[in-house]
Amino acid sequence: MESAENLRNKCAACFRQFNRMEHLVDHMRSAYHSVHEPTCGVCKKHCRSFESLREHLIGPLPKQECKNLFNTRGCKFCLAILDSPYALRIHQERCQLSGVNYGILARLANLGLHDSLTIDSGFSRGPQVVALTCKMVGGGSDGSLDICARVCIIDENENMIFHTYVKPPIPVTNYRYETTGIRPEYLRDAMPLRQVQRRIQDFLCNGEPMGKIRSLKGGKARILVGHGLDHDLDRLQVEYPAIMIRDTSKYPPLMKTSKLSNSLKYLTQAYLGYDIQTGIQDPYVDCVATMRLYLRMRNQVHRREDYPLASDPQNRNNFAPWRQSELERMSPEEMLAISRSDYYCWCLDSA
């Protein structure tokens, strides 16, 4: 049994033990524990990412009690613990998704342009969500310079709303056919990059001025989902505020324990249960994978807080140095109750 003093100096979120209360306060000041962290369904330990939670449950040195329950009642995709093996079987049939069967529409997209981009005149219930993926060919003397040659956008229901090949602004020296499936004739009469850039920029902003989108409320501007969007938008020469971007390569709960990005291929296999990018890569398939990952993260149920971010003005003094004595008199649970997240949880998009 742990002594009362040890329990008092133990973090209520990650269970780290400290020798002195002041060290626990310092830990809480920098850990940003919150209700939005992935949490073990058995012992309630908070983990920084789902990969950390996976290691806690089935890694090389798991907590045995948690491992035993997970082995019989744990979903290997969302890592939830169900009430019974039967409940697990029913849950996992819904949790494991199948690969994309995108039929005639996507196959026709291989022929060229599909454009259903529109600017909405009115407000819908919350921001619309779209996913974007680009495929690159190579430029430069060694073919290593990425040039956007194909772009696809889908809506939240996995409907393709834009697809085009892109006429490159500089000569292509490597078509990377083994992964892109792109041939020179596909790009010869394709839409120029400048026109693609303008169409996508206008569609994303949806009639809102950039200044308004950069504020806390984007109005009618669309939420943009993708994987490695910084690179895709750079190659498209599209500027879009970070506040409206949901990037599965940079979302802390989906990153490695080393805080590096996971590949979209890995995330899809681990969290959705099917394989992608096994040969020639279709941007529609990647769009669907990123959208499904986003929706899975958005649909998580976390306790609502009026001010959920550590950066919110109302929370900036929660662990201020001048409160040190007061904080040291708090219990670990009381400190956890005032701790807030240092990242924007996607569940807040459904608020």
From TrEMBL:
PROSITE patterns: ZINC_FINGER_C2H2_1 (PS00028), ZINC_FINGER_C2H2_2 (PS50157). Keywords: Exonuclease, Hydrolase, Metal-binding, Nuclease, Nucleus, Zinc, Zinc-finger. Pfam families: RNase_T. One of its GO terms (biological process) is rRNA processing. Residues 9-38 form the C2H2-type domain. SMART domains: EXOIII (SM00479). Its main location: nucleus. SUPFAM superfamilies: Ribonuclease H-like. GO terms for cellular component: nucleus. It is found in: Nucleus. It comes from the Eukaryota. Transmembrane segments: none annotated. The keyword Electron transport does not apply. One of its GO terms (molecular function) is zinc ion binding. The keyword Cytoplasm does not apply. Belongs to the REXO4 family. PANTHER family: RNA EXONUCLEASE 4 (PTHR12801:SF122), RNA EXONUCLEASE REXO1 / RECO3 FAMILY MEMBER-RELATED (PTHR12801). This is RNA exonuclease 4. It comes from Durio zibethinus. The lineage of its organism: Eukaryota, Viridiplantae, Streptophyta, Embryophyta, Tracheophyta. The gene is LOC111315925.
